[in-house]
Structures are given as C-alpha cells and as structure tokens.
Amino acid sequence: MKLSNTTSSIIRSPALYLGLAILSLTGCGSSDDDNTGYIRFYNASYNAPAVYLTVDEDLDEDDDDEVEITYGAVTFGNVTSNNALDNDTYWVELGWQDEDSSERSDLEVIYQEQHQIRNEVITFVALTDDIRSPNVLTFDIPVVDDDDDDDDDLFNVRFLNLNTDYSTVDVYISEDNETFNEAEFVSSVELNSLTDNIKIEQDQYIFYITEPGGSEPIFTSEDISYSVVSQYVVVLRDNVGVGSSPFTIDSIGVNSVTELNDVDSEASFGFYNGIATNQYIPDYTGVVDLSVDLDDDSDLMVDDLSYGQFSETVTTANGDYSFDILNASNDELFIHDALLSLQENADNIVFLYSKTDPVDDDEDDVIDENEDGIVDNYESIIKSLTITKSSSSSIYSHGIKVVNLSDSDDFSRVKFYFVENDEVISTADNTLSVLQESNSSITLINNTYDVYAIATIEGSDIIMDSFQLTLDEDSVEQFLIFAPDDSASTGFSMTLVNQNQVN
Fold first, then answer.
1. Which of 370, 388, 406 represents a domain boundary (last residue)?
2. Is the per-residue pLDDT at 2 higher than 50?
3. pLDDT band at residue 6, thresholds of 50, 70 and 90?
4. Which of 52, 165, 317, 370 is the most buried (most CB within 10 A)?
C-alpha cells in the first residue's frame, strides 16, 4: 500500500478493500454553476432530540429575503443531504422543537453563527456533546471532482474523531477476509479534527481503531462495500449501545447513515410473558419456564416467569441462539428451538404471547365440518416477537414502542392516540395504528398526554383503555404494551414500562 505525501493521499493495493459505511459527502458532484456551495448538518449529540438546521441571509424580519430555509429535522446519528446554496454569507442556526410547532420562529435555538458558503465547498456542521451545553464543529470540505476517480475506481475518505475519551486514535484498514495482522495504517485522528482526503480503491474493507501507536485494536468494524465514486467522512464516535466497545462508526451515504458496530460487540436480551390464561391452554396458570441454548455447553434457565412480567436482562456474545418455552405447571413444551438472533450492540426483548386459531385437523381448510355455522374447535398457538430496545438518550423528546399483543376476532388493529391538552382525539397529531402481533414507534416531545387505545368493532370506535402520560427531562424510552386483561371491562388494557427498567 502506498500513501502519497500530497493533501489528497492515495491508497492503492489490488488486494486491499475498504470496508466501512462512512459518512458520504458526495451526491452533489461538480456544479455547472460557478457560484454554488453546499451545507450539510450531522447530529452527533447523544442526548439531543431531532434538530433543525436553518440558513438565513438576514436575521432581520424581511419579506424580501431570498434565502430563509429550515431543513428537515435530524435525529441523533443522522445527517442531512448536501444542500446547495449560492455563494454568500449566511446565518446558520440549529434548534430543536419544544412546542407543537416546528416553525423556525418556534424552535429553541442552540446555535447561531455566520458562515460563508463558497464555490464547490461543503460546509459540514457537526453538533456534538451534551445538548444542554453543545459543541458545534464546522469544516470546509472541497468537493472532489476528479475524472481519475472514475477511471481508476477510487473513492475519497476523511476521518473525524468525536469520541471524547480518546484525544487521538490510529485507524487501520484491511481486506474484508483479513485480520488486523494484515491491516495497513491509514491515519492518526485527533479529537474534533477532520483529516485530509485519502483516495482508496473501491472494494470491501474492515476498519480497525487502536490507541496511538497501539498494536491491538480496540475496535474492529463490520465489513462494508464501496462500489461507487463518492466522497466520505468516517465518523468515530462514542458507543451508546450495550456492547463494551468504546466506539461506533457512523457511515453516512449520499442521503443516509449506516451505523457500524464492533464485530465483537456483545448483545443483551430478556423475555416478557404476555401469554394470558385461556380455556385453550389446559393447566396453564400464567407462568412459563424458558431454556436458552447459549452455546454447545451451557443453557440459561429462566424459571417461573409470570404473566405480565419481564425477566432479567442477560448480556452475551452476539450471534444466533435458540430457546424453548415450557408451561411451568407441567413442563409441557410450548415452543422448541425458537430463534433468538442477537445483533451486535443491540438490547432485545422477546415478547411471548398466544394466538387463538380454529383447528383444522385434516388440513382441508374446513373448520366447520358439520356445517352448523359454528367453528368446531380452537387452539392457542404460542408465539414470540423480538423487539430491539431504543438506544436514544434524548432529554427533550422520548420514544414510545407500542407492542400490540391483542388476540381478537372483533378487530385486527388498534389505533393509539396521544392527545395534548388543547386537542381532542379527532384532532390529535400524534397517532399510531398497530396491527395485532406487531409493533410500531412514535417520538413525543416533553408534555402531558392523554393516551387512548381505540379499536373499531362492528363499525363503532370503542375506547379499549386510556391513561395519562407525562414526559419530562427525567423520562426515558418506553414500552406501551396492549394485551388481554380479564380484569378490564373491555378485556384489554395498556401497560407502560420504562425500557431501561427492564433488567
């Protein structure tokens, strides 16, 4: 491998692959207009809500402003596209939504500075650190328009270190089928600094991070393919997942980001017993046992998990495992070798539930053999639904994962309304429609909400359950579980659980 001494270094090796979905800054290419630059915003503040970027040529109220643009909100770990602007000096604002309105005048502004947009230069704005005392970094990145990149199958990459625990790190790369022993040194990267551009052959690679001069990697990325001429920035940031690796890499393509975790990152999992008692599960008292086959030599046992309860969380190596579910009353096997697939750095909850289906013993698709208009028999099928817990730490907004474990022939979906003080159900802006045996997510800004679960039964909207929810800076991500409840007047109820209390 060869690194040139020019500002734009070149790594060329027929055997070398560069693998990491990194922060891509292309997509704009060379402009036909000699008077066009670009601006791009990346949200790397770990506890920030969605943040808006505004560009304004004049802060004074003026209907004649040619440029006053607020771009779409950017959540943690995400980025805007390259937004084209005429060369000029603009006020650049960052703000978050603390009320119902996302109008620029209603945003809580956390940053406001003037920046010059220059021809064929990307002004890259990065929000880092705690949103209550944020740090905003800006970098001017020239647009690369090199015909040789296309001819030689090259792409361009820069590295940005945002991990506050490491003032400097070294970055290596290797082919996707090699190890650190075969890796090549690429660059040293200082905290909050962007490296010079490096040209690398398109292919598939693994990234490694070491301490300065270190001989052992403290991070080994998943492999990733580079197959187009493009311009990238590799962002090395703090890991906010459950794995012990100190790093995560954000790989931002033309319009999106791919998160790359340490290939050896651990994963966590736990169980929720949503299997309600019913007449079609004989001798079941609402308690299950579980056996998880973690490897060839050991099983994890979860004993006496009652209905409506979570098990303790277990952290283990990422990978694919299996588990059995048994009736704790008589050791009847409900499910054998159900798949438990654990991705790197993820925290998972396996929701157990039952579904009542008509019995078709002879498999002729006839469930009313005597044609008396009544289904001959029913059976309860035990199922599982795996959901990854949110890793968000936002203090000004919070995510709700709604899990619909209902089992009813009267309705197929439930609509959830999060109603603010100045709204009624029919005017609520925040709603989710969730099918049975499914889940969906919504993000809510801090406020007090009346929460309703409504199902349409025989043409009428029926309130199945309701409660009041208050979100503030001390709140965390939540599970909202809708499930059978014999004690409720409708037969169903909602349960709200803090995701970080599931342990």
1. 388
2. no
3. very low
4. 52
